[in-house]
Design goal:
Order of helices and strands of chain A: HHHHHHH
Strand content of chain A: under 5%
CATH topology of chain B: Rna Polymerase Sigma Factor, Chain: A
Shape of chain A: rod-shaped
Largest sheet of chain A: none
Structural class of chain A: mainly alpha
Strand content of chain B: under 5%
Radius of gyration of chain A: 40 Å
Number of strands of chain A: 0
Oligomer: heterodimer
Low-confidence stretches of chain B: none
Order of helices and strands of chain B: HHHHHHH
CATH class of chain B: Mainly Alpha
Number of domains of chain B: 1
Number of helices of chain B: 7
Helix content of chain B: 55-70%
Structural class of chain B: mainly alpha
Mean pLDDT of chain A: 63
Low-confidence stretches of chain A: 55-71, 108-115
Largest interface: A-B, 27 and 42 residues
CATH architecture of chain B: Orthogonal Bundle
Chain lengths: 128, 162
């Protein structure tokens, strides 16, 4: 005859065994999702690694990339010329634009009378 | 000396291989570890959908930590065990009753219906009984008899706070 403890132990084992048997199988979709996550992270981490390799020399590397992106010396020269021309022909501050508009419309002629830096421009406009 | 096939590599080597961009390593790790994580979560939550969410989240955390994993630290399976335990704790225990459409498929469809029902009833009774034990005692029993961890693994897990 079995001891009470042994019997209890066997019963308990049977219960644990039942719990194991009642365990549902994880779905194939779960496996697919886990692998998709793995691949997505692998791609992202690979991309981050290649990005960090590209800037190993830090600030100078970034400056170099920026410089090349602008087209080197030739690009910089073009940029400076364009900036200068813009300032000369229209890249002026809004308040100066307003003054020009006022002059053209004749509203503030007295204000600028005798000291109008844009007098020539105004006259040229009136003369067509 | 014959070289090892990927299947023969241990978890740490496989994780390092994954971090270096070997997709096969992810597949082997998933097949090796994910069912255990799922089982662990299911035995605590008794809900298949929740167990799948938690297994997926735990594996995601493993992929994230892969590039920084230090081989000298805890075993990967032990670390994952703790991750799942924490996730289960966060999610909290839900009632074992689930909607019909969420009802899990049986492991073996050939298993007689009455035998399956008996297993489910016994499992339910067991979960209730475990809930009445002091937490650490219940934890040790679950690890030994449900998660089928070895004694050294149980000792390692019990020694750290979860």
């Amino acid at each position: 005859m079995k001891k009470f403890e042994d019997q209890n132990h066997e019963d308990l084992e049977a219960f644990f065994l039942s719990a194991q048997r009642a365990l549902p199988t994880p779905s194939d979709q779960l496996r697919d999702r886990v692998l998709q996550n793995a691949q997505a992270l692998m791609a992202r981490q690979g991309a981050e690694k290649s990005d960090s390799n590209g800037s190993d020399i830090g600030f100078l590397g970034g400056l170099s990339d920026f410089w090349s992106g602008l087209g080197g010396l030739k690009g910089w020269a073009s940029l400076v010329v364009i900036a200068g021309l813009s300032f000369q022909f229209g890249g002026v501050a809004p308040e100066v634009e307003a003054q020009i508009y006022d002059m053209i419309s004749g509203q503030n002629e007295r204000v600028f009378e005798g000291s109008d830096p844009f007098e020539d421009l105004y006259l040229a406009y009136l003369e067509g | 000396m014959p070289s090892q096939t990927p299947d023969q590599l241990d978890d740490t080597a496989l994780l390092a291989a994954y971090a270096k961009g070997m997709p096969e390593a992810a597949r082997i790790l998933t097949e090796r570890l994910m069912p255990k994580l799922y089982a662990q979560a299911y035995h605590r939550l008794q809900n298949a959908a929740d167990a799948e969410d938690i297994a997926q989240e735990a594996m995601l955390r493993l992929w994230k930590i892969a590039p920084n994993w230090q081989s000298g630290r805890a075993k990967i399976s032990t670390w994952l065990y703790q991750v799942v335990a924490n996730l289960c704790k966060d999610r909290g225990r839900k009632p074992p009753m689930t909607a019909l459409e969420e009802a899990p498929e049986p492991i073996d469809p050939r298993l007689a219906v009455d035998a399956r029902l008996q297993d489910e009833r016994r499992a339910s009774a067991l979960y209730k009984a475990l809930d009445q034990l002091p937490p650490r005692q219940a934890q040790a029993l679950r690890m030994r008899h449900l998660d089928e961890l070895s004694n050294p693994e149980i000792a390692a897990i019990m020694a750290v706070s979860i």
